[in-house]
Design goal:
The protein is built from eight helices and ten strands. It is of the alpha/beta class. The N and C termini lie close together (8 Å).
């Protein structure tokens, strides 16, 4: 397994080149970029062009830092709302376009909807409607578990993925987003080979599960990292562990923080 960092973790004012230089110097093996609204100093957008991709490819080569996946802040469960499917398709196609242009193997999307029942049914229908296109493009589409009340159990995630029925549509598993109410290594055990990509963060419970808590630095929360890494190794996962975290210590520089996160990932490996 290898260390990666999501671009949201990086100081917002940095240019693409400054970001690639800083993340490479901190010891990461890859970086995840994001499709956001226009205006971010180092973000992709729906307006990104081939010229933009070419410049990023050059930086990736210069700093020996591959772009490993494409996330987004714009997928808010539209796959579960049929009247928003045109936008959801356009966004997913843009992520796939960026992934292919930058050499990334996968993208992240967030399913959901107006209710659990209709959201699940409509999300399955949406991904099935794009299944042939996704398989033709050859880019893995990972559905992520987020704090929207949609995936409350690994079996929820498993059943949706299996109902869609494509080897190119699976799980982008966030190992921190279920810590408040569940056990990450059990999700790994259930989802097995469906997992294509992994996000890393940590959360400190207030004692028992479902009793509240707070986000903490990796290795400073309630995650049982030895058990999680053992579970990932048991299913043969050998991809990137991508930290999606934020700097809370105002006294620490961003460069120090990047090195700290890289060290935390190294320590759990």
């Amino acid at each position: 397994m290898k260390k990666a960092l999501n671009a949201w973790t990086v100081e917002g004012s940095l240019s693409f080149e400054e970001m690639f230089a800083a993340v490479s110097a901190a010891g990461f093996d890859g970086i995840e970029l994001n499709v956001d609204r226009p205006g971010s100093a180092h973000g992709l957008s729906m307006e990104s062009t081939e010229a933009d991709y070419a410049a990023i490819r050059a930086l990736s080569a210069k700093y020996d830092l591959p772009v490993i996946s494409i996330s987004t802040s714009l997928a808010g469960g539209e796959s579960g709302i049929p009247e928003k499917w045109d936008y959801a398709r356009a966004l997913l196609r843009k992520q796939i376009e960026a992934a292919k242009a930058l050499g990334a193997k996968g993208v992240l999307t967030v399913p959901g909807g107006k209710s659990l029942k209709s959201g699940r049914e409509n999300s399955i229908a949406f991904f099935q409607s794009m299944r042939e296109e996704i398989e033709r493009e050859g880019i893995f589409v990972g559905v992520e578990n987020v704090w929207n009340g949609f995936f409350l159990s690994p079996f929820d995630m498993q059943s949706l993925i299996d109902a869609v029925g494509s080897p190119m549509i699976g799980a982008y598993l966030d190992l921190g987003n279920m810590l408040a109410f569940s056990v990450p290594e059990q999700w790994v055990e259930v989802l097995e080979k469906r997992i294509g990509f992994v996000h890393l963060k940590d959360y400190k419970r207030n004692g028992s599960m479902s009793a509240g808590g707070s986000w903490e630095d990796i290795t400073h929360g309630s995650a049982n990292w030895p058990a999680i890494i053992a579970a990932l190794r048991a299913i043969g996962f050998d991809g990137y562990l991508t930290a999606e975290v934020g700097k809370a210590d105002d006294e620490m520089s961003f460069d120090e923080y990047y090195r700290k996160v890289a060290g935390e990932i190294a320590s759990i490996l």
